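Q: What structure does this chain adopt?
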Amino acid sequence: MNRRRFTFAAGAALLVPGRARPGTPDPARAALQSGGCALLMRHAATEPGIGDPPGYRLDTCGSQRNLSPAGREQARRAGAWLAQQGFVFDAVFSSRWCRCVDTASLMFPGQPVEVLEALNSFFENGSARERQTGALRSWLGTLEGSRRVALVTHQVNILALTGDNLAMGGAVVVQPDRRGGVRSVGRLDLAG
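A:
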């Protein structure tokens, strides 16, 4: 590899979000330790499919695309890993969809899971994207001090807010900035 390509490749590697340089603290972990942030997670692995089956209902989990057995285990392991790392969350919020509520409940057993409408999917209604993303950004702007919250939502919501395209079970840590926005601190590998 010539020097120009090496310099570009080395510089690009430093710009990858959520990746700490060797020997430096992981920014996502550091933010979770100090607080004033949110763990923003895409629901765990589901049964195969995209979106929900035709005619699904939010009040009937059996009509939705739900967590697979592997996804249920993925959520339990993620919660165990967070607890093992000493990350305690002041509150847990979820989209209304059962796959999100179930992910949150399995990750944080015994902790109440509150539905936050701004986390609801707009996959089928793209016209709600700006309104919901703005509502979530405003809500995150109210995080105070060392408060830590866990939020379980959908790929479209995370992509709209942060630009991160997470796999099922993926997570990113976000913090409100001083300008009324939200900044992505970095991805967090919940598998350890």
